[in-house]
Protein backbone atom coordinates (compact mmCIF):
# COMPACT_ATOMS: atom_id res chain seq x y z
CA UNK A 1 0.00 0.00 0.00
CA UNK A 2 1.29 3.46 -0.95
CA UNK A 3 -0.20 6.52 0.76
CA UNK A 4 0.43 10.24 1.13
CA UNK A 5 1.34 10.99 4.74
CA UNK A 6 -0.48 14.33 4.52
CA UNK A 7 -3.77 12.44 4.16
CA UNK A 8 -3.44 10.98 7.67
CA UNK A 9 -4.79 12.88 10.71
CA UNK A 10 -2.10 14.94 12.39
CA UNK A 11 -0.99 13.34 15.64
CA UNK A 12 -1.81 9.79 14.54
CA UNK A 13 0.40 7.05 15.98
CA UNK A 14 1.54 4.34 13.59
CA UNK A 15 3.01 0.96 14.49
CA UNK A 16 4.99 -1.73 12.67
CA UNK A 17 7.51 -4.46 13.29
CA UNK A 18 10.08 -2.50 11.31
CA UNK A 19 10.16 1.17 10.34
CA UNK A 20 12.51 1.99 7.45
CA UNK A 21 13.42 5.61 6.73
CA UNK A 22 14.28 6.26 3.09
CA UNK A 23 12.87 4.59 -0.04
CA UNK A 24 15.92 4.39 -2.26
CA UNK A 25 17.71 1.24 -3.40
CA UNK A 26 18.59 0.10 0.14
CA UNK A 27 15.24 0.94 1.73
CA UNK A 28 13.08 -0.58 -1.00
CA UNK A 29 15.19 -3.75 -1.13
CA UNK A 30 14.90 -4.19 2.63
CA UNK A 31 11.18 -3.42 2.73
CA UNK A 32 10.36 -6.01 0.07
CA UNK A 33 12.55 -8.66 1.72
CA UNK A 34 10.99 -8.12 5.15
CA UNK A 35 7.41 -7.93 3.88
CA UNK A 36 7.92 -11.17 1.97
CA UNK A 37 8.99 -12.68 5.30
CA UNK A 38 5.64 -11.90 6.90
CA UNK A 39 6.60 -8.81 8.91
CA UNK A 40 4.70 -5.54 9.10
CA UNK A 41 6.86 -2.84 7.58
CA UNK A 42 6.40 0.91 7.41
CA UNK A 43 8.56 2.56 4.73
CA UNK A 44 8.86 6.33 5.15
CA UNK A 45 9.87 8.46 2.17
CA UNK A 46 10.31 12.21 2.61
CA UNK A 47 9.58 12.97 -1.03
CA UNK A 48 6.80 12.09 -3.41
CA UNK A 49 6.72 10.22 -6.69
CA UNK A 50 8.23 13.03 -8.75
CA UNK A 51 10.99 15.57 -8.36
CA UNK A 52 9.83 18.62 -6.42
CA UNK A 53 12.04 21.68 -5.97
CA UNK A 54 10.55 22.54 -2.57
CA UNK A 55 11.12 19.00 -1.29
CA UNK A 56 14.61 18.85 -2.81
CA UNK A 57 15.48 22.05 -0.94
CA UNK A 58 15.56 20.04 2.31
CA UNK A 59 18.87 18.64 1.04
CA UNK A 60 20.41 22.08 0.52
CA UNK A 61 23.42 22.92 2.64
CA UNK A 62 26.96 24.24 2.44
CA UNK A 63 30.37 22.87 1.50
CA UNK A 64 33.80 23.89 2.70
CA UNK A 65 35.17 24.11 -0.87
CA UNK A 66 32.83 24.00 -3.86
CA UNK A 67 35.79 23.28 -6.11
CA UNK A 68 36.23 19.96 -4.32
CA UNK A 69 32.63 18.98 -3.60
CA UNK A 70 29.29 19.76 -5.23
CA UNK A 71 26.49 21.32 -3.15
CA UNK A 72 24.82 18.61 -1.05
CA UNK A 73 21.49 18.77 -2.90
CA UNK A 74 23.22 17.58 -6.07
CA UNK A 75 23.63 13.92 -7.09
CA UNK A 76 20.79 12.74 -4.82
CA UNK A 77 17.03 12.77 -5.02
CA UNK A 78 14.50 13.19 -2.21
CA UNK A 79 11.68 11.11 -3.71
CA UNK A 80 10.43 7.54 -4.05
CA UNK A 81 13.26 5.54 -5.61
CA UNK A 82 15.88 7.93 -4.28
CA UNK A 83 18.92 8.41 -6.46
CA UNK A 84 18.09 5.35 -8.56
CA UNK A 85 15.82 7.79 -10.42
CA UNK A 86 18.95 9.45 -11.89
CA UNK A 87 21.81 6.91 -11.58
CA UNK A 88 23.87 5.54 -14.44
CA UNK A 89 23.40 1.89 -13.50
CA UNK A 90 27.04 0.76 -13.16
CA UNK A 91 27.16 -2.36 -10.96
CA UNK A 92 30.08 -4.35 -9.60
CA UNK A 93 30.78 -6.10 -6.30
CA UNK A 94 33.48 -5.19 -3.85
CA UNK A 95 36.59 -7.38 -3.94
CA UNK A 96 37.67 -9.67 -1.08
CA UNK A 97 40.71 -7.45 -0.44
CA UNK A 98 38.40 -4.52 0.31
CA UNK A 99 37.22 -6.18 3.52
CA UNK A 100 40.74 -6.87 4.81
CA UNK A 101 42.66 -4.96 7.44
CA UNK A 102 45.52 -3.49 5.35
CA UNK A 103 48.33 -2.11 7.47
CA UNK A 104 49.21 0.57 4.90
CA UNK A 105 45.62 1.92 4.91
CA UNK A 106 44.74 3.43 8.30
CA UNK A 107 41.29 2.55 9.65
CA UNK A 108 40.77 -0.14 7.01
CA UNK A 109 39.16 -3.51 7.71
CA UNK A 110 35.50 -4.50 7.95
CA UNK A 111 34.07 -6.56 10.83
CA UNK A 112 32.73 -8.93 8.16
CA UNK A 113 34.43 -10.78 5.30
CA UNK A 114 33.57 -10.93 1.63
CA UNK A 115 32.09 -14.39 2.24
CA UNK A 116 29.63 -12.88 4.72
CA UNK A 117 28.03 -10.67 2.07
CA UNK A 118 28.56 -12.86 -0.99
CA UNK A 119 25.29 -14.86 -0.58
CA UNK A 120 23.26 -11.67 -1.09
CA UNK A 121 25.02 -10.39 -4.20
CA UNK A 122 23.00 -12.48 -6.71
CA UNK A 123 19.69 -11.16 -5.36
CA UNK A 124 21.11 -7.63 -5.34
CA UNK A 125 22.03 -8.10 -8.99
CA UNK A 126 18.46 -9.19 -9.72
CA UNK A 127 16.91 -6.21 -7.93
CA UNK A 128 19.26 -3.84 -9.77
CA UNK A 129 18.45 -5.68 -13.03
CA UNK A 130 22.12 -6.16 -13.82
CA UNK A 131 21.64 -9.78 -14.90
CA UNK A 132 23.57 -12.72 -13.53
CA UNK A 133 26.13 -12.36 -10.79
CA UNK A 134 28.93 -13.00 -13.28
CA UNK A 135 31.78 -10.52 -13.23
CA UNK A 136 34.48 -12.16 -15.34
CA UNK A 137 34.55 -12.75 -19.07
CA UNK A 138 34.60 -16.49 -18.52
CA UNK A 139 31.52 -16.50 -16.30
CA UNK A 140 29.45 -13.99 -18.27
CA UNK A 141 30.11 -15.23 -21.80
CA UNK A 142 29.83 -19.01 -21.71
CA UNK A 143 28.05 -19.19 -25.06
CA UNK A 144 29.92 -16.60 -27.13
CA UNK A 145 32.94 -15.06 -25.40
CA UNK A 146 34.18 -11.70 -26.74
CA UNK A 147 36.77 -12.22 -29.44
CA UNK A 148 38.36 -8.81 -29.08
CA UNK A 149 40.81 -8.40 -26.20
CA UNK A 150 40.84 -5.16 -24.24
CA UNK A 151 44.30 -4.47 -25.67
CA UNK A 152 45.79 -6.97 -28.07
CA UNK A 153 49.02 -8.40 -26.69
CA UNK A 154 48.86 -6.63 -23.33
CA UNK A 155 50.20 -8.83 -20.53
CA UNK A 156 50.62 -7.91 -16.88
CA UNK A 157 51.06 -9.63 -13.54
CA UNK A 158 49.65 -6.53 -11.79
CA UNK A 159 46.49 -5.89 -13.82
CA UNK A 160 43.63 -8.14 -14.86
CA UNK A 161 41.71 -7.34 -18.02
CA UNK A 162 39.04 -10.04 -17.74
CA UNK A 163 36.90 -8.53 -14.96
CA UNK A 164 33.70 -6.70 -15.79
CA UNK A 165 31.41 -3.95 -14.76
CA UNK A 166 27.77 -4.70 -15.57
CA UNK A 167 25.02 -2.17 -16.21
CA UNK A 168 21.48 -1.94 -14.96
CA UNK A 169 18.75 -0.65 -17.30
CA UNK A 170 19.39 1.72 -15.34
CA UNK A 171 16.57 0.65 -13.05
CA UNK A 172 14.45 3.24 -11.29
CA UNK A 173 13.53 1.27 -8.14
CA UNK A 174 10.32 3.28 -7.68
CA UNK A 175 8.98 2.56 -11.15
CA UNK A 176 10.28 -1.00 -11.42
CA UNK A 177 9.19 -2.24 -7.99
CA UNK A 178 6.12 -0.05 -7.45
CA UNK A 179 3.63 -2.87 -8.01
CA UNK A 180 5.35 -5.05 -5.41
CA UNK A 181 5.43 -2.11 -3.00
CA UNK A 182 1.68 -1.66 -3.47
CA UNK A 183 0.79 -5.32 -3.12
CA UNK A 184 3.26 -6.73 -0.58
CA UNK A 185 1.30 -7.94 2.46
CA UNK A 186 2.10 -6.00 5.59
CA UNK A 187 4.00 -3.25 3.74
CA UNK A 188 2.85 0.35 3.98
CA UNK A 189 4.69 3.12 2.12
CA UNK A 190 4.14 6.69 3.29
CA UNK A 191 5.18 9.48 0.90
CA UNK A 192 5.84 13.01 2.07
CA UNK A 193 6.85 11.64 5.47
CA UNK A 194 9.92 13.58 6.57
CA UNK A 195 11.65 12.43 9.76
CA UNK A 196 12.36 15.39 12.02
CA UNK A 197 13.56 13.77 15.27
CA UNK A 198 14.79 10.48 16.75
CA UNK A 199 13.87 10.66 20.48
CA UNK A 200 15.26 8.00 22.79
CA UNK A 201 13.39 6.09 25.49
CA UNK A 202 13.91 7.02 29.13
CA UNK A 203 16.68 4.44 29.56
CA UNK A 204 18.65 6.14 26.78
CA UNK A 205 19.65 2.98 24.93
CA UNK A 206 16.60 2.50 22.71
CA UNK A 207 14.76 4.62 20.18
CA UNK A 208 11.32 5.45 21.57
CA UNK A 209 9.75 6.53 18.29
CA UNK A 210 10.35 8.43 15.08
CA UNK A 211 8.79 11.87 14.75
CA UNK A 212 7.52 12.64 11.27
CA UNK A 213 6.47 15.90 9.63
CA UNK A 214 4.12 15.75 6.65
CA UNK A 215 3.88 17.95 3.58
CA UNK A 216 0.65 19.45 4.92
CA UNK A 217 2.26 20.57 8.19
CA UNK A 218 0.97 17.64 10.26
CA UNK A 219 2.91 15.42 12.64
CA UNK A 220 2.95 11.65 13.04
CA UNK A 221 4.51 9.34 15.62
CA UNK A 222 5.91 6.02 14.43
CA UNK A 223 6.63 3.23 16.91
CA UNK A 224 8.31 0.01 15.82
CA UNK A 225 10.22 -2.92 17.24
CA UNK A 226 13.16 -2.12 14.98
CA UNK A 227 14.12 1.08 13.14
CA UNK A 228 16.37 1.34 10.08
CA UNK A 229 17.77 4.55 8.59
CA UNK A 230 18.34 3.96 4.87
CA UNK A 231 18.34 7.57 3.72
CA UNK A 232 21.80 7.78 2.12
CA UNK A 233 25.34 8.59 3.17
CA UNK A 234 24.66 12.29 3.77
CA UNK A 235 21.14 12.21 5.21
CA UNK A 236 21.84 9.43 7.73
CA UNK A 237 24.48 11.43 9.67
CA UNK A 238 22.29 14.53 9.39
CA UNK A 239 19.37 12.74 11.08
CA UNK A 240 21.61 11.21 13.75
CA UNK A 241 23.31 14.51 14.57
CA UNK A 242 20.06 16.49 14.56
CA UNK A 243 18.74 14.63 17.64
CA UNK A 244 20.79 14.95 20.88
CA UNK A 245 20.92 11.25 21.80
CA UNK A 246 22.17 10.01 25.15
CA UNK A 247 25.46 11.90 24.91
CA UNK A 248 23.96 15.19 23.75
CA UNK A 249 26.22 15.04 20.68
CA UNK A 250 23.81 13.15 18.46
CA UNK A 251 22.23 9.70 18.36
CA UNK A 252 25.00 7.09 18.31
CA UNK A 253 27.68 9.78 18.53
CA UNK A 254 29.09 9.43 22.03
CA UNK A 255 32.61 9.07 20.57
CA UNK A 256 32.27 11.72 17.84
CA UNK A 257 32.37 9.29 14.91
CA UNK A 258 29.06 10.07 13.17
CA UNK A 259 29.74 12.06 10.00
CA UNK A 260 33.48 11.37 10.01
CA UNK A 261 35.56 9.26 7.58
CA UNK A 262 33.57 10.64 4.65
CA UNK A 263 34.76 9.12 1.35
CA UNK A 264 33.80 9.36 -2.30
CA UNK A 265 36.04 7.96 -5.05
CA UNK A 266 39.15 9.21 -6.80
CA UNK A 267 38.24 9.66 -10.45
CA UNK A 268 39.49 11.47 -13.52
CA UNK A 269 40.96 11.19 -16.99
CA UNK A 270 44.65 11.40 -17.72
CA UNK A 271 47.37 10.86 -20.30
CA UNK A 272 47.49 9.21 -23.69
CA UNK A 273 47.71 5.54 -24.57
CA UNK A 274 49.23 5.18 -28.04
CA UNK A 275 49.10 1.63 -29.33
CA UNK A 276 52.00 0.14 -31.26
CA UNK A 277 51.43 -0.81 -34.93
CA UNK A 278 49.55 -4.08 -35.25
CA UNK A 279 47.94 -3.84 -31.80
CA UNK A 280 44.22 -3.09 -31.57
CA UNK A 281 42.06 -2.19 -28.56
CA UNK A 282 38.39 -2.56 -27.67
CA UNK A 283 36.98 0.01 -25.27
CA UNK A 284 33.29 -0.48 -26.02
CA UNK A 285 30.58 -2.65 -24.48
CA UNK A 286 29.97 -6.35 -24.92
CA UNK A 287 26.56 -7.93 -24.40
CA UNK A 288 26.58 -10.87 -21.97
CA UNK A 289 24.61 -14.06 -22.49
CA UNK A 290 21.72 -12.58 -20.46
CA UNK A 291 21.54 -9.44 -22.60
CA UNK A 292 23.29 -7.11 -20.13
CA UNK A 293 25.86 -4.56 -21.29
CA UNK A 294 29.29 -5.27 -19.81
CA UNK A 295 32.61 -3.50 -20.03
CA UNK A 296 36.15 -4.67 -19.33
CA UNK A 297 38.80 -2.60 -17.58
CA UNK A 298 42.30 -2.73 -16.15
CA UNK A 299 41.88 -3.93 -12.55
CA UNK A 300 44.79 -3.84 -10.11
CA UNK A 301 45.05 -7.25 -8.46
CA UNK A 302 44.97 -7.77 -4.71
CA UNK A 303 48.56 -9.03 -4.87
CA UNK A 304 49.67 -5.86 -6.65
CA UNK A 305 47.83 -3.68 -4.13
CA UNK A 306 49.74 -5.42 -1.35
CA UNK A 307 53.06 -5.09 -3.19
CA UNK A 308 52.56 -1.43 -4.10
CA UNK A 309 50.89 -0.64 -0.76
CA UNK A 310 48.01 1.22 -2.39
CA UNK A 311 44.23 1.21 -2.41
CA UNK A 312 42.05 -0.52 -4.98
CA UNK A 313 42.20 0.83 -8.54
CA UNK A 314 40.59 0.28 -11.95
CA UNK A 315 40.95 2.13 -15.25
CA UNK A 316 39.21 2.14 -18.61
CA UNK A 317 40.20 3.20 -22.10
CA UNK A 318 38.54 6.52 -22.77
CA UNK A 319 38.07 9.17 -25.41
CA UNK A 320 40.00 12.48 -25.22
CA UNK A 321 38.84 15.26 -22.90
CA UNK A 322 35.58 16.60 -24.35
CA UNK A 323 36.23 20.27 -23.57
CA UNK A 324 39.39 20.37 -25.73
CA UNK A 325 38.42 20.86 -29.41
CA UNK A 326 41.82 19.53 -30.49
CA UNK A 327 40.29 16.03 -30.49
CA UNK A 328 38.58 16.99 -33.81
CA UNK A 329 35.72 14.62 -33.13
CA UNK A 330 32.25 15.81 -34.06
CA UNK A 331 30.43 13.72 -31.46
CA UNK A 332 32.50 15.04 -28.56
CA UNK A 333 32.18 18.62 -29.76
CA UNK A 334 28.42 18.22 -30.13
CA UNK A 335 28.23 17.03 -26.51
CA UNK A 336 30.26 20.02 -25.38
CA UNK A 337 28.04 22.47 -27.26
CA UNK A 338 24.93 20.83 -25.77
CA UNK A 339 26.26 20.90 -22.20
CA UNK A 340 23.50 23.23 -21.00
CA UNK A 341 20.90 20.60 -21.90
CA UNK A 342 22.58 17.72 -20.05
CA UNK A 343 21.63 17.07 -16.39
CA UNK A 344 24.12 18.30 -13.81
CA UNK A 345 24.91 14.79 -12.63
CA UNK A 346 26.31 13.86 -16.05
CA UNK A 347 27.19 17.25 -17.49
CA UNK A 348 29.69 18.40 -14.87
CA UNK A 349 32.62 17.06 -16.87
CA UNK A 350 31.47 19.08 -19.89
CA UNK A 351 32.03 22.32 -17.99
CA UNK A 352 35.34 23.87 -17.06
CA UNK A 353 38.61 22.89 -18.68
CA UNK A 354 40.08 24.99 -21.47
CA UNK A 355 37.68 25.28 -24.38
CA UNK A 356 39.22 28.61 -25.43
CA UNK A 357 36.24 30.97 -25.21
CA UNK A 358 34.66 32.03 -28.50
CA UNK A 359 37.57 30.58 -30.45
CA UNK A 360 37.10 27.24 -28.72
CA UNK A 361 33.37 27.27 -29.45
CA UNK A 362 34.04 27.95 -33.13
CA UNK A 363 36.57 25.10 -33.15
CA UNK A 364 33.94 22.76 -31.72
CA UNK A 365 31.49 23.88 -34.42
CA UNK A 366 34.09 23.15 -37.11
CA UNK A 367 34.53 19.68 -35.66
CA UNK A 368 30.80 19.00 -35.89
CA UNK A 369 30.60 20.15 -39.51
CA UNK A 370 33.75 18.32 -40.63
CA UNK A 371 32.74 15.09 -38.91
CA UNK A 372 29.04 15.25 -39.72
CA UNK A 373 28.59 11.73 -41.22
CA UNK A 374 30.09 10.02 -38.19
CA UNK A 375 28.22 12.35 -35.84
CA UNK A 376 24.93 11.49 -37.56
CA UNK A 377 25.62 7.76 -37.25
CA UNK A 378 26.40 8.19 -33.56
CA UNK A 379 23.12 9.98 -32.83
CA UNK A 380 21.12 7.44 -34.81
CA UNK A 381 22.67 4.71 -32.65
CA UNK A 382 22.03 6.77 -29.50
CA UNK A 383 18.38 7.29 -30.41
CA UNK A 384 17.80 3.59 -31.02
CA UNK A 385 19.88 2.03 -28.27
CA UNK A 386 19.72 4.71 -25.58
CA UNK A 387 16.73 7.04 -25.94
CA UNK A 388 14.16 4.48 -27.12
CA UNK A 389 15.56 1.31 -25.55
CA UNK A 390 14.42 -0.11 -22.22
CA UNK A 391 17.90 -1.46 -21.48
CA UNK A 392 19.92 1.57 -22.40
CA UNK A 393 23.36 1.73 -23.97
CA UNK A 394 25.36 2.86 -20.94
CA UNK A 395 27.52 5.77 -22.10
CA UNK A 396 29.18 7.65 -24.91
CA UNK A 397 31.67 5.48 -26.78
CA UNK A 398 33.70 7.15 -29.51
CA UNK A 399 36.17 5.02 -31.42
CA UNK A 400 39.15 7.20 -32.35
CA UNK A 401 40.41 7.36 -35.91
CA UNK A 402 43.93 6.69 -34.68
CA UNK A 403 44.78 4.13 -31.98
CA UNK A 404 45.10 6.74 -29.23
CA UNK A 405 43.07 6.83 -26.02
CA UNK A 406 43.06 8.63 -22.72
CA UNK A 407 42.77 6.69 -19.46
CA UNK A 408 39.71 7.01 -17.22
CA UNK A 409 40.59 5.98 -13.64
CA UNK A 410 38.42 5.14 -10.64
CA UNK A 411 40.11 4.36 -7.34
CA UNK A 412 39.57 3.81 -3.65
CA UNK A 413 39.78 6.81 -1.34
CA UNK A 414 41.59 6.26 1.95
CA UNK A 415 39.32 6.82 5.01
CA UNK A 416 40.39 9.82 7.06
CA UNK A 417 38.79 11.02 10.26
CA UNK A 418 39.00 14.71 9.40
CA UNK A 419 36.96 14.29 6.21
CA UNK A 420 33.45 14.76 7.50
CA UNK A 421 29.93 16.15 7.38
CA UNK A 422 28.51 18.18 10.26
CA UNK A 423 25.43 20.23 11.01
CA UNK A 424 25.75 23.67 9.44
CA UNK A 425 23.87 26.93 9.70
CA UNK A 426 20.14 27.29 9.15
CA UNK A 427 17.33 24.75 9.15
CA UNK A 428 15.03 23.29 6.51
CA UNK A 429 11.26 23.83 6.33
CA UNK A 430 10.70 21.18 9.04
CA UNK A 431 13.26 22.67 11.41
CA UNK A 432 16.00 20.07 10.82
CA UNK A 433 19.50 21.64 10.73
CA UNK A 434 21.11 21.77 7.32
CA UNK A 435 24.31 19.93 6.46
CA UNK A 436 27.84 21.25 6.00
CA UNK A 437 30.24 19.10 3.96
CA UNK A 438 34.00 19.19 4.52
CA UNK A 439 35.30 16.46 2.19
CA UNK A 440 39.08 16.03 2.24
CA UNK A 441 41.71 13.92 0.54
CA UNK A 442 45.39 13.43 1.30
CA UNK A 443 48.80 12.55 -0.03
CA UNK A 444 48.06 8.83 0.36
CA UNK A 445 45.17 9.19 -2.10
CA UNK A 446 47.44 10.80 -4.66
CA UNK A 447 50.01 8.08 -3.95
CA UNK A 448 47.49 5.34 -4.82
CA UNK A 449 47.07 6.91 -8.25
CA UNK A 450 50.74 7.65 -8.77
CA UNK A 451 51.86 4.10 -8.08
CA UNK A 452 49.02 2.42 -9.98
CA UNK A 453 49.47 4.63 -13.04
CA UNK A 454 53.25 4.12 -13.01
CA UNK A 455 52.74 0.36 -12.86
CA UNK A 456 50.32 0.46 -15.78
CA UNK A 457 52.73 2.56 -17.85
CA UNK A 458 55.56 0.11 -17.09
CA UNK A 459 53.38 -2.86 -18.07
CA UNK A 460 52.43 -1.26 -21.38
CA UNK A 461 56.08 -0.69 -22.17
CA UNK A 462 57.13 -4.18 -21.08
CA UNK A 463 54.44 -5.89 -23.14
CA UNK A 464 55.37 -3.99 -26.29
CA UNK A 465 51.76 -3.07 -26.99
CA UNK A 466 52.23 0.67 -26.90
CA UNK A 467 52.94 3.58 -24.58
CA UNK A 468 51.01 5.16 -21.77
CA UNK A 469 52.31 8.71 -21.43
CA UNK A 470 51.18 11.10 -18.71
CA UNK A 471 52.70 13.79 -16.54
CA UNK A 472 52.98 12.56 -12.92
CA UNK A 473 52.98 16.20 -11.81
CA UNK A 474 49.37 16.55 -13.00
CA UNK A 475 47.89 13.53 -11.19
CA UNK A 476 46.54 15.49 -8.24
CA UNK A 477 45.12 18.17 -10.56
CA UNK A 478 43.34 15.56 -12.67
CA UNK A 479 42.05 13.77 -9.58
CA UNK A 480 40.42 16.96 -8.27
CA UNK A 481 39.48 18.59 -11.60
CA UNK A 482 35.79 17.78 -11.10
CA UNK A 483 35.87 17.38 -7.33
CA UNK A 484 34.63 14.46 -5.23
CA UNK A 485 33.08 11.82 -7.44
CA UNK A 486 29.34 12.22 -7.87
CA UNK A 487 26.83 10.56 -5.62
CA UNK A 488 29.17 8.12 -3.87
CA UNK A 489 28.62 9.20 -0.26
CA UNK A 490 30.49 6.60 1.79
CA UNK A 491 31.63 5.92 5.35
CA UNK A 492 29.82 8.57 7.41
CA UNK A 493 28.44 6.02 9.91
CA UNK A 494 31.00 3.28 9.56
CA UNK A 495 30.80 -0.35 10.61
CA UNK A 496 33.23 -1.83 13.13
CA UNK A 497 33.75 -3.78 16.33
CA UNK A 498 34.99 -0.85 18.41
CA UNK A 499 32.35 1.77 19.40
CA UNK A 500 35.12 4.36 19.79
CA UNK A 501 35.96 4.20 16.08
CA UNK A 502 32.70 3.08 14.48
CA UNK A 503 28.96 3.76 14.63
CA UNK A 504 27.41 0.35 13.90
CA UNK A 505 28.41 -3.25 14.53
CA UNK A 506 28.75 -6.14 12.08
CA UNK A 507 24.95 -6.43 11.90
CA UNK A 508 24.59 -2.69 11.14
CA UNK A 509 23.10 -2.00 14.58
CA UNK A 510 24.05 1.33 16.16
CA UNK A 511 26.38 0.52 19.06
CA UNK A 512 24.58 2.83 21.48
CA UNK A 513 20.97 2.14 20.47
CA UNK A 514 19.66 -1.40 20.78
CA UNK A 515 16.82 -1.13 18.26
CA UNK A 516 18.31 1.21 15.61
CA UNK A 517 20.07 0.02 12.44
CA UNK A 518 21.65 1.78 9.48
CA UNK A 519 21.65 0.64 5.84
CA UNK A 520 23.52 1.77 2.75
CA UNK A 521 26.98 3.04 1.90
CA UNK A 522 27.15 5.19 5.06
CA UNK A 523 28.25 2.06 6.97
CA UNK A 524 31.09 1.07 4.58
CA UNK A 525 34.44 1.33 6.42
CA UNK A 526 36.30 1.58 3.09
CA UNK A 527 35.24 2.57 -0.41
CA UNK A 528 36.79 -0.01 -2.79
CA UNK A 529 37.11 0.78 -6.49
CA UNK A 530 33.46 -0.12 -7.07
CA UNK A 531 30.37 2.02 -7.33
CA UNK A 532 28.51 1.51 -4.04
CA UNK A 533 24.92 0.70 -5.10
CA UNK A 534 25.22 -3.07 -5.63
CA UNK A 535 27.03 -3.63 -2.33
CA UNK A 536 24.61 -1.30 -0.51
CA UNK A 537 21.69 -3.43 -1.73
CA UNK A 538 23.45 -6.71 -0.86
CA UNK A 539 24.29 -5.45 2.65
CA UNK A 540 20.67 -4.30 3.09
CA UNK A 541 19.40 -7.75 2.16
CA UNK A 542 21.80 -9.24 4.69
CA UNK A 543 20.41 -6.83 7.30
CA UNK A 544 16.83 -7.81 6.39
CA UNK A 545 17.73 -11.44 6.97
CA UNK A 546 19.23 -10.55 10.37
CA UNK A 547 16.10 -8.61 11.36
CA UNK A 548 13.82 -11.50 10.38
CA UNK A 549 15.77 -13.84 12.62
CA UNK A 550 16.05 -11.25 15.39
CA UNK A 551 12.31 -10.56 15.41
CA UNK A 552 11.52 -14.27 15.32
CA UNK A 553 13.27 -14.65 18.68
CA UNK A 554 10.48 -12.58 20.22
CA UNK A 555 12.60 -9.86 21.81
CA UNK A 556 10.56 -6.72 22.71
Supply the key terms.
single chain; 556 residues; alpha/beta; 6-stranded antiparallel sheet; globular
Give an overview of the whole structure.
Strand 18 and strand 19 (433-438) form a beta hairpin. The protein has 16 helices and 21 strands. The strands form four sheets. Strands 1, 2, 3, 8, 9, 10, 11 and 21 form an eight-stranded mixed beta sheet that branches. The protein has 556 residues and is of the alpha/beta class. The two termini are 26 Å apart.
What's the short version?
This protein is of the alpha/beta class and 556 residues long. It is 26% helix and 20% strand.
Average residue-wise pLDDT: 93
What is the count of β-strands? 21
Structural class designation: alpha/beta
Write down the overall geometry: globular
Q: Percent of residues in beta strands? A: 15-25%
CA radius of gyration is 24 Å
Instruction: Measure the end-to-end span.
Output: 26 Å
Major sheet attributes: 8 strands, mixed
What level of helicity do the residues show? 25-40%
Unreliable residue runs? none
List the helices and strands and how they pair.
Blueprint: E1 2-4, E2 13-21, H1 25-36, E3 41-45, H2 53-56, E4 61-63, E5 90-91, H3 114-117, H4 121-128, H5 137-140, E6 159-160, E7 164-167, H6 173-176, H7 178-183, E8 187-191, E9 193-197, E10 210-214, E11 219-229, H8 235-242, E12 265-275, E13 286-287, E14 293-296, E15 298-300, H9 302-308, E16 313-318, H10 330-337, H11 344-347, H12 357-370, H13 372-387, E17 404-412, E18 420-427, E19 433-438, H14 443-463, E20 466-469, H15 475-480, E21 516-518, H16 533-552
Parallel strand pairs: 1-8, 2-3, 2-11, 3-8, 4-19, 11-21
Antiparallel strand pairs: 5-7, 6-15, 7-14, 9-10, 10-11, 12-17, 12-20, 13-14, 15-16, 16-17, 18-19
Helix pairs in contact: 1-16, 4-16, 10-12
